Amino acid sequence: MKLAIEFSLKEPEFPLDFRRTMLSFLKKCLTDANQGKFMDKYYGSGQEKDFTFSVFFVRPDFQRDRILLKQASGKLLFSCAEKFTGFLFFSAFLEQQKKPFPLEHGNYLTVQSVRKVMEPETRESRVMIKMLSPLCVREHTREGNRDQYYTYEDAGFEEKAEYVIRHKLIRAGFSEELSGTVHIAPVNCKRTVVEFYNRKIPCSLGYFLLEGDRAVLNHLLKAGICSRCSACRAWAARRPTCWARCCGRRR
């Protein structure tokens, strides 16, 4: 399920670490919905989350301490693979309509509308995708509790990305055989750095070729790809026009 949440702002600006802000907003939505009984299901157990989201602003101007906007509004796009999660968040977002959510510098966010968005499914085993949010590939080492991040420029990027994707699929209930069909390759990408909880994380943006079983691909397109999807990362959209160029035919 894919949802579009339109929101207004008191002032045309937004916190610089907007991912952290929107994550706090999601937690607020879950806390208020159904007496908060589903909060632990998504944020208290440490389990893999089957949703992802992106935030869009009109002509944002990134300053040292905030984001200046041309309009006092924005849009949150939320996507998930599981129907229960979709309907839960749909209801939670509706409950937040017209309720101000406090931000920095006396500003606040107010949900104005919530609607479902059409989700065409792919019928192919190879799709060209464009990342709507930076693609984060993380390798976590328990010893020392250290994280290493990979971008498309790094040696071993595809191997690490596929490992993370396959692990995510297995935890979502897919068999090792189906999970093993996934392959990802950068096509036209650039490196970017995102700030999240005062950490600067190297990521990748652009176009990637994604291959695998159709059920697996449709799950990834809804639930997100690679690491930290539920922290506003790695949401992909199909681009049929690129399919014709890379795979020899148009869908």
Which secondary structure elements does this structure contain, and how are they paired or packed?
Layout: E1 2-9, E2 13-15, H1 18-32, H2 39-43, E3 51-56, E4 61-62, E5 66-68, E6 73-80, H3 83-95, E7 101-102, E8 108-117, E9 126-131, E10 137-141, E11 146-150, H4 157-171, H5 176-179, E12 183-196, E13 199-211, H6 214-223, E14 236-238, H7 240-247
Antiparallel strand pairs: 1-6, 1-8, 2-5, 3-6, 4-5, 7-8, 9-13, 9-14, 10-11, 12-13
Can you walk through the features of this model?
The protein is an alpha+beta fold. The chain folds into two domains: 2-117, Alpha-Beta Plaits, CATH 3.30.70; 126-247, 2-Layer Sandwich (Alpha-Beta Plaits), CATH 3.30.70.1900. It is 28% helix and 35% strand. It is built from seven helices and 14 strands. The chain has helices at residues 18-32, 39-43, 83-95, 157-171, 176-179, 214-223, 240-247; strands spanning 2-9, 13-15, 51-56, 61-62, 66-68, 73-80, 101-102, 108-117, 126-131, 137-141, 146-150, 183-196, 199-211, 236-238. Strands 3-6-1-8-7 form a five-stranded antiparallel β-sheet. The chain has a four-stranded antiparallel β-sheet with strand order 12-13-9-14, with helices on both faces. The chain has a three-stranded antiparallel β-sheet with strand order 2-5-4, with no helix packed on it. Strand 12 and strand 13 (199-211) form a beta hairpin.
